Structure prediction request, 211 residues.
Amino acid sequence: MSKQVWKPGNMIYPLPAVMVSTADKSRNTNILTIAWTGTVCTNPPMAYISVRPERYSYHMIEESGEFVINLTTEKLAWAADFCGVRSGRDVDKWKECSLTAEPAQSLKYAPSIKESPVNIECRVIRTEKLGSHHMFLAEVTAVRVDDSYLDEKGKFELKRTGLLAYSHGEYLGLGKKLGTFGYSVRKKKTAGKKSTGRKNANRKRKNGKKN
Prediction:
């Protein structure tokens, strides 16, 4: 298998295409879609988003120090794309996408998107000015989930939400399940045990015939 060598670039795909809701201290709000986002730490829970300084939402995050990462679904694909290619300077994205802003649980300014199944509320603790993008490193202050995706035991079934992924310019559904966490090392029934089971069954059948 031959491979070409390209110049350095970001080819880490797929990524989540999330809608980030923001607000400044005057409570002007906006939504921007980004894929440069992810988990940083489990304890304390931390996440990040990387944003170009020229984006309309950048000054809002910088001023309020707050944002909400709203997970997107296949049903929200059009809205996610629109909020990524249109600027809040020109249009009201909430109105154009028929999205509903609702108060966050733990934040003062930034709202969350009601139609998103998962809202991850974040408070900026540090800004890293890296180059084309500035990274907002944030503490996760609350997570809100749509209770319609809870099963009868109260477990949140994230797979039923129809999460959206972004890969090299394309929006994709997640597809079929290939395994679960840890399945590669999970103990399996040994062939010997199965063989022993078959031997016992054969022995019982033989004994039955003799009787």
